[in-house]
Design a protein that fits this description.
The chain is an alpha+beta fold. It has helices spanning about 10-25, 35-40, 55-65, 80-90, 95-105, 105-115, 155-170, 225-240, 270-280, 285-290, 370-380, and strands spanning about 1-5, 30-35, 45-50, 70-75, 125, 140, 150-155, 175-180, 185-195, 200-210, 215-220, 245-255, 255-265, 310, 320-325, 330-335, 335-340, 350, 360-365, 385-390.
């Protein structure tokens, strides 16, 4: 069976998750990407074809002139609609392209949730800097952005004018969304569905950097959110038409009310997916691929709920060259399994981005209870250093 996997830059999810899972399923994989050399360097044994994957017409043409497809899949935020349209063209299982578009376009997501009567958030779109009469503080962000890139809290019209001008200079031709700030604790909900059955895999409690930025610095696994919270989030996902394959939803809870911040219609990223598969002890990546092959999910995934987990992302606090940092490490300490992977090489120079691009590495930890996991993680981080010189 032939799987076409759409990708932009190489990611850990594809390299360590989906490609090994496809091999275990016995699938022939063809990667379609606009960055073929980068992918061939990482997995030279996999067929990689150059394609303008942002254009669904180019994707359909590339597939139709190659081998017959059995599945078209992507884990990229930017390519969900293209993959959904290509799958529909070839009469293959896939996500509803309208749902993928609603999730990717943050302004359309707000309109859809409001029209469905499940949540209304004040929002507006900007194509040029402007000082709006808005319910400040507000959040300004790219309409189709990801990973906290150019997401910032503004406290008044002048601040909005300044920030929107800066972002649009970095992103000419982009559209910005300005929306009211939603107070509350930030969480995620991880779901997996086949169009009929939907499993809730749990979620994470996310700790952010101080305002005005929204860098995810720490995530702690939550085996089960309160049922009323889950029901509210699922109702909003239903309004968006989300229910097939993996979905990563970010939401806040304030005084018992759950309100979606954004929906990433794919598996959770930044190595959380790798941790989730280990923690729950399920073939998560295989399950995701099977749904795109048209196979139903089991009524019970057999996921374990008795473990604890945490992820830490050491971040750069200044611009400069990384001159000292821990190497890739795997350890078992007091029943806690630690996996550290560097995300920036020693010798690299970077500016300070105030986004997830400031991550220096990621530490994944799973263990029997949260107190032990937290202690072991704190000790690991305290014993290591990341040195940046101007």
């Amino acid at each position: 069976m032939r799987l076409y996997l759409l990708a932009l830059n190489p990611t850990d999810a594809v390299t360590e998750g989906f490609l090994p899972a496809a091999a275990r399923l016995g699938l022939d994989v063809t990667v379609l990407t606009d960055q073929p050399d980068a992918h061939r360097r990482i997995y030279p044994e996999t067929e990689v074809l150059e394609c303008d994957v942002r254009d669904f017409r180019a994707v359909i043409t590339r597939i139709s002139t190659h081998h017959r497809p059995d599945a078209v899949f992507t884990n990229s935020d930017h390519l969900q609609t293209q993959a959904a349209l290509a799958a529909a063209y070839f009469d293959l299982p896939g996500k509803d392209w309208r749902a993928t578009l609603r999730c990717k376009d943050k302004a359309e997501m707000r309109r859809r949730l409001s029209a469905a009567g499940v949540d209304t958030v004040w929002s507006a779109e900007l194509t040029e800097p402007a000082a709006l009469d808005a319910p400040y503080p507000c959040v300004v962000k790219p309409r189709e952005g990801v990973a906290s890139e150019d997401v910032v809290l503004v406290d008044g019209p002048e601040d909005l004018m300044t920030r929107s001008k800066e972002i649009l200079e970095r992103r000419p031709g982009s559209v910005l969304v300005v929306e009211e700030y939603l107070p509350g604790e930030l969480f995620t909900l991880e779901t997996l569905g086949d169009g009929n059955v939907r499993h809730v895999l749990g979620g994470f409690h996310t700790e952010l950097s101080p305002p005005p930025y929204f860098i995810e610095e720490r995530l702690t696994f939550v085996p089960a959110h309160p049922e009323p919270v889950v029901e509210q989030v699922l109702a909003q996902l239903d309004a968006l038409g989300v229910g097939f394959g993996a979905c990563h939803t970010e939401f806040v809870v304030h005084e018992g009310r759950a309100r979606i911040i954004e929906v990433n219609y794919r598996a959770i990223g930044d190595q959380c997916d790798l941790l989730l598969a280990r923690l729950l002890r399920i073939p998560l990546f295989e399950h995701i691929l099977r749904t795109h092959l048209g196979e139903p999910l089991p009524a019970d995934l057999g996921a374990r709920r008795d473990g604890a987990a945490r992820l830490e992302y050491p971040c750069a606090d200044r611009a400069g060259t990384l001159v000292d940092a821990p190497r890739s490490t795997d350890l078992d300490v007091d029943g806690v399994r630690l996996t550290y992977r560097p995300l920036r090489s020693v010798g690299e120079r970077h500016e300070l981005y105030m986004t997830n691009r400031d991550y220096l590495g990621v530490l994944r930890a799973t263990g029997p209870d949260q107190r032990t996991v937290d202690r072991v993680v704190a000790e690991f981080l305290a014993e290591r250093q990341w040195e940046i010189q101007p």
